[in-house]
Every structure is written in structure tokens, then in C-alpha cells.
Amino acid sequence: MGKFSIEAFMQLGVSDEINWLKGTVSSIKKTLADADYSALKDDTVRSWSRKLKDVMYEAADILDVCDEMEGEEHGGRSRNSPVALCLPIQGHKIRRQVKALRQKADAILEEGKIFDLTHVRSDEDHNVDATTACHVPIPRTNVVGRVQETRMLVDKLTGKGISGPGMTGQNVEVIAIVGMGGIGKTTLAREIFTNDMIQGKFDKRLWITISKGNNSISLLQQVIQGLGCEHEGIRDSAVLEHIISSEVRRKKVFLVMDDVWEARGVVDIFKKSFVGNAQAGSRILITTRSKQVAQEMQAAIVHEVSKLSSEDSRSLFLQCFLYHSLIPKDHVISCDKVVHMWIAEGFVGADATSELPEVLGMKYYKELVARHLLEPVDEYDGQGHYKMDNLVHTFAKNVVESESLVVEEGEENPEPFDVEEGHIRRSWAAKEKIEWKAPKELHSLRTLIIIGNVIVQASTGRTLSSLSRLRTLHVNKNEHVHILLDSLHHMKHLRYLDLSYTDALALPNDIGEMKFLQYICLQGCKKLVKLPKSIVELHKLRYLNISETKIKSIPEEGFGGLKNMVSLHGFPSQMMESVIAKDWCSLGELKYMSQLMHLALEGLENCASGSMASLAKIDDKKNLASLRLSCTSRLSVNGEVDKETVEEVFDQLCPPPKLQELNIKGFFGARLPRWLIFTNLAELRVLKLDNLVCCNQLPSTLWQLPCLEYLYIKHTLNVKHIGHGFLLQSSIPGPRETDVAATTPTAATSATAATAATTTTTTIGGGSTHNRGPYHRLSGAGSVGSGEEGEIVAESATEDAATTTGSSNAIGFPKLKKLVMYGMMKWKEWEWEDQVEAMPKLENMHISWCLLNQLPPGLASQARSLRILVVDNVKNLISIDGFCSVVQLHVSSNFKLERISDLPKMESLTVSRCPKLNILQRLPALQSMELNDQEMERLPDCLRDLPAKLRHLRITCNLDLLTLISRGKGTPEWEKIKHIQQVNACTDAEDDKTDKRFVFYKRDSDSTETNIEPSPSTSQVGGN
């Protein structure tokens, strides 16, 4: 608290009460760690824990009041201010409240003693006497919060120069992972063991899991088995040690010893069998709960696994899980918003490692995913959108039913409430249009989530001031949000405000008085044109999203003072004459926001120069994980198009090396930013290039990005040819080595290289060779795009860059999982030969709206993990064949497509508007097929060639063709499909304005059903 506040409270005897409050909240949380767990099985405990939570929530509200007064004091309020003048009154009120709360808490805690809730054992803490095992661990996907630790330890294990007590000069070195039971030591070791760098660095890898009290003979035998040898039952330790020594001699070995309880026996294996025999650079990795074991093993590095959460992590994890059940089954809220709600509720805060709450919360979320409590939503590609399995959702909803109210579509108005007074903490309403009266029972409500046109009204004779304790208000797609906005000033405790896609006209001018607001989302509020000036007073604000609004400016003074900002979306680039400076640019306000993790900039065409853009200091934001750079128009504010200026602006928005997601949209420069060519974005996972209408070059260094998983290239209109330069380093011979620059590229050399590449180009992967220029052989930096005739060409840099980012033997796009090439309207040719290795982990690919006449043979032969292939509006494509791993194929509006063949694993095929398709052959695994075409007059003859074990064929066609099918046995159309196990044919709902017509056929029962009435001239439909 401020000095005056502290003195005043001391005089009033309140400081002790406040200290008690803080301690009480902490103690109750720890007690609830037991209570919440037991409450899953015991209704009595559940009822008791609910009363204990009431105390905790009331204490938190009082602390909010104290915190607000502290903020007022720091804000410079005078002693004569209303806050200062009412301080004695407020102090006496707080004292009375705390005294009453203390009595209530003592009584509840006394009552809870019968439950003996002092400690809940973790299943992982039980000492299970597992047998020693030697095996290769199965890598776990979605490992929570261990990426940085894994990378750091892999670097140390595969690098040089690690040292520790007594280790200098030894050929085998030990690294120890230390931590309490169940904290994730084995998970971390597993990630290291299966890491690609580890697999490529060592001749032998073996994994030993050691049980408590294990004897040295069995350990030696297990090591021998792990080395691929037989111990033949020998129990002489000297002989066993000799076998190991012989097997590891002059080999680089990586040995993992998991769950080492004591060094005895393990040290002997290390000293007698490995040291002096294994090749220098060999490593032993141990996991243990004891630092003493690590010391006895003389570990060169002791890595302590950080806690994923604080002491009460189990209670918080359970609360986070149960909170997610508020979201109805048919609705999806992005994971970042759910995490923000958790933070607003107080479930997640900064931990001892000083991690941002958003980072810690995402670890909780990923843990829910890893435990299969949440599953990805297909239409979002698993990118930040998950939902609960129906069974899990039902369970969680039942657990929280006493504290939550969920009103979904089809349910009656919940008035009156059948709940205990004051216990409803969280409420959800999802309706198309209802009127919902908020009764007095909701005075303790902390979370209100509304989707759709729910009209929230107060009960008769009351106002919505009853919602004064709200922490979270989430209202989406609502046309009556003004009712809530009018009552917003009552919600003094509000932390989270989401009004996405509502008809909100403006935020209250006094929103700056809502001092606890941390998250504001206004995305899609089309009527919103400006932010209130007082928003700069929300110093706790961490998230602001104004994308898809009409907001084109920010408050001119003070916005940069929001230094706690972590995520900022839709931030407008704005130039104006200011009272502070003649030329003021909104981007300059960003330089103070050092904690930014997510940043989306709009209207960059309005930035006057590169020097103005440089004021944002993007490269200094070390936490930045995602960056979106967007131009919303090809015209600047003065109505001019200036390609060179927009190129300079983008050049100055260089992100830090640890960026994970990059989105460039609407860029109308002729070349992409130089930093995309020259910067080593080694951690980039997602890259989206959208609507690059004037760009003649795409980076040829993308293939080297080691972590790139998702690549989206859309509406890049000038590309005609993609050669091998897109997939690997160019190997075209060039001038002598002395012509190659050997210095690290600076801005000047980068500019020189870029300029040279624009005028002197090399066609990658074939085509004519122009004057190559001095840098053409180097792969460290470059770009590919259309040259004079639309070829993909290379823009090269220096040898240093080449050696740091890749080599000619590297595999292109080593981690890429999904590739989307959409709207490249001039793209005619993709060159990729069979022998060129690239995209080994590609799982999902979409090619749409281009002029390709064939898919490259290298795609079929090298992308061996490809399971889903979507080909849409590829106008000149004739055939799709040879994809040995594809399981699902979707083809649509490919008007020249004639053949689909040689897809041995394809189980599902969807064909829409491909009128020339006449060959379907060698598809042995096909289980289901959809055929959609409103214009086809006859079924394609190739349906006869479908395998007889095809389970299901679904046909959507016009009514005329459906009528022909309905005529049944002996008719030409029926003969094409009669061998298929089940056929479901119907009209499109839009085409058939009456009841939807259908024909349903089952081969096994030889039965047909239809609602098409046969005409006198038609045959009777077979079956029933």
C-alpha cells in the first residue's frame, strides 16, 4: 500500500487483519487442494469445501478493495481526495468484515477436521517396486512446458565443453536430472532420448529403468541387453563388465538410467565399463530424486526440473479442468481465452520462476490436452481450439453443478433458481434469443459467459448491480450488449471483458476506473470506432484485441505506459502531428512494451518511413512468440501507392530469433522483408503469407527452418514456377570460390545481395540461366519468386549464413506437417524430382486455385507421412496417382481430372464437380466415397471399378439423375453401383426445395428405400 494508506490502516488497527486475510487465502487454497480431490467422491466434503470457498472469495474481495486503495495512493491522490477522506470509514468497515469472516473461517475449519484433509498422496509418489526394464521409450506428444529444457539439455549432451567436479578429461560424462517424484523427470529424459539430434549423434543408445533396491548383477545384465547382446545368465560381475567394455569400445554411447535411487552399483558400471572404453563424447543421463546421487555420480551438470506449478498445483489444475466444463459441447473458445479466464479467476498467477501467468496457464492447458481431457477440433487443425469429450464433459459438469448455472439452447428460462443462496459462482447462457432475468441469488457470481442474443435483465425492482463481484464477463455475438455495458461501472472487480462480435458502440468513458481489468477483447465489434482516452489508466491491462473493428487510432498520449501488455491485436499504424512531436507514430508507443508475446499490427501502409517503424523496437521484445504484419489497403492515408516505402517499413519490423508464428498479410511490396531472408528464425513453427499481390519473390530459405510445422501461402499471384530451390540448396555450378562473400551479412551487404538478386538471377531447378552474380551458390539466405518470366529464382547471401542454417545434404522442410498453397492463380509448374528429399513429416496438404497440370513426382515419393490431400480448383490437373500413404483424398472442381489411381492406403475419397473423372483403379483400401455434382447427367462409369468391399457410397446429385437411380435393378445407373455394400443418394437441399429426395440401398439385404414416386413409365424400385 502507499505510505498514507499504511499509516492510516496502522492507526485503525487494520494491518493485522489484512495480513491475516492474505495468509487465510493462501492456507485455504492449500486445504482445498485436499478438499477438491476428496469432493469428487464425497458429497459431504463437497458441501463443506463450498463453504470454505465462500470465505476465500470474500477475503479476495476485501483484498481487492485494499489493492484499489493502494493503487489510488500510488496514483497520486491527495489527502483531500474522496478516497483519502473516506479512509477511516473504509478502514472500520474492513475491520468489521474481517472480524466476521475470521469467525466464520474458524468455525468452518473446525468442522473440517473430521475429514482429516492434511495431505493427499499423489499416485506418482507411491513407491511401486517396478522391475528393471531396458527399452526404447515411446515419445509422448504434447509434452507440457519442457521444450526449452529439452533443447538446452540436448545442446549440452551433443556439444563440447561441459565440465563438472572431477570430470575434466574423461571420455564419458554424466548429466543428472533431479526433482521430486512425479514432476516430469522421466518425461524430460524421454524427450531427450527420442530427439533427432541425439539419435544422429550416438552410435549406441540404451535406456535402463532402475527399481529401488536393484542389485548390480541385474543392472549389468540389463545394460548388456540394451546393447543388443546376450548375457546368457552369467552372474559374474567381472565377466559382465568385460562384455560391456568390449561392446562400447570406440563407440559413442548414450545411456539413460531412469529413476536412480542410489549410486551404489550404478557408479561401478560407469567407472569400470564405460570410462576408458567408450569413445570420447559419450554421455550418461540419469534421473533421480536425490542431489546426493548426482554428486556421487560426479555429474558434470545437475539440472533441477522446475515445478510445472506451485504447491497447490493439483487443486488449481482440477479447478482449471472443471472450469472448462462451463463451455457447452457445441461451442469452442480458443485456448488463450480460456487461460485468460483462469487468470481472471485467480487459478493461475506468476510462479516462483517468474514465468508470465499466460505461459504458466498454457502449461496447464497443454497438460489437459496431454491427458486426453481435451481433444483438438478438426476445423481448427488443432491450432489453439479444443473441446471436452462428451463423457468427460458430463462428469465435470456434474461435479460443478452446485456452483455453476449453464443454460443452453432448448432449455427453459432458469428463473427461479433452484440453488443455495449465494453459491452460484459461474454461469453460462447460450441461446438464440431469450430474456434472462438476473435474480438476487447471483450476487456472488464471478463468471458470466453469454453466447448469442441473450437479453440480460434485472429482476423486478433490482438493477444489474447484483453482478458487482464479476471477475469474468464473456459476451459473444450478442445484439443487446448495451444493457450490460450500462452496468459495467458496477463491476469493480472485473478482470476479463470479452465483447467479441457484438453490437457494442463504445466502451464507457470512465473505464479507466476499473483498475483490475487485465483482458479486453473487442474483436469483430464492427460499430466500434474509437477507444476511450481513459484506457491508458488501466495499468494492469495485459491483453487488448481491437482487430476487425473500425478503430483506426489510439489515444495519443500514455498508451506506451501499459507496460504489462502481453498480447496486442489489431494495433493501428497511425501518423499525425502531435503536441509532443511534430511527427508522431503510434508504432513508437510499442517500444515500452517489453513483455509482449503476441503482436498484430494493422494498416502498416500508413507508416511514413522505415525510421518511424524502427521506433517500435520489435527485435528487442525477447518474449515475442507471434507476430502479424498487415496492410489493410494498397493506398496510404494520402492516397498514394508507394511500394518502396512499405518495403522499408517491413524491413524495420524484424522479430527476435525465438519467434514461433509469423503472419504477413496484404503486403504490396515487390519483395518480402530482408530479415525473412537473412534472419535465422530457428524456432518458427507457423508461417502464413497471404495476399502478396505484387511480390515477385518468395524466400528460398524456408526449407531450412528446422521447426516449421505449418506453411500457408495464399494469393501470391505472380508466381508461375516453383523449382528445386524451394526445397533445398541450389547446386548449380557457379564462379570460383573467391567470388563468394565470406562475411556475415550486415544490412549493407544484405541490401547489396538483394539488389543483385533482383537484377541478376538464377533459375532454381531448371530453366534458363541468367548472369548468376557473386552469391548464387549460397543457401544461407535468399528468396524465390518470379523472375522476368515468372520463374522461381534465388536471392543469395553469404557463406557464413549457409553454414549456419543448412547444407546441401539437408532435408528440406524437415518438420513440416501441413502445407497450404491457395490462390496462386498463375502457378503452372512445380518441379520436384523423385530423388530430392523433402517434407518427410508432411501429414496434410491443400492445393487450391492454380494452373498445375500435374503434381510433382517428388511429392508422391518423398512425403511418406502424407495422410490428407485436398486438391481444389486445379484447373489443368489430369491425374492423381502414386501417393502410397494418403488415407483421405478430397478433390473438387478439377475440371480436367481424369484419373485417380495407385493409392494403396486410401480409405476415404470425396469427389465434387470433376466431370471428366473416368478412371478409379488400384484403390484396395477404399472404405467410403462421396460423389457430389449437381450438373452430372449420368453416374461415371468408373464406379463399376470400385472394390466390392467398399462399405459406403454417398451421392449428391440433381433430381433428374436421382430419379434414374431410383428406377433400380436392370437400369444402366443401377448397374454401376449395385456391387457396393451401401449407397445413399440424395438431392442437395438447396436444389430440391421440397422434401429432400433420397434413395437408400443395402446390398446384403437387397433392399432399397426411396421417397421418389415412380411414374407409370418407370420400373418398380427393387426391394422394400
TrEMBL record:
Instruction: Tell me where in this chain the Disease resistance N-terminal domain is found.
Output: 7-67
Q: Where is this region: Disordered?
A: 737-791, 1003-1024
Which stretches are tagged as biased composition: Polar residues?
A: 1008-1024
Q: Give yes or no: UniProt keyword Nucleotide-binding.
A: yes
R13L1/DRL21-like LRR repeat region domain span: 587-715
- Biased composition (Low complexity) is annotated at 741-763
* Residue stretches making up the Disease resistance protein winged helix domain: 327-396
Q: Which UniProt keywords apply?
A: ATP-binding, Leucine-rich repeat, Nucleotide-binding, Plant defense, Repeat
The cross-references to InterPro entries, in alphabetical order and at most eight, read:
Leu-rich_rpt_typical-subtyp, LRR_dom_sf, LRR_R13L1-DRL21, NB-ARC, P-loop_NTPase, Rx_N, WH-like_DNA-bd_sf, WHD_DRP
Protein name as annotated: Uncharacterized protein
Q: Which organism is this protein's natural source?
A: Oryza sativa subsp. indica
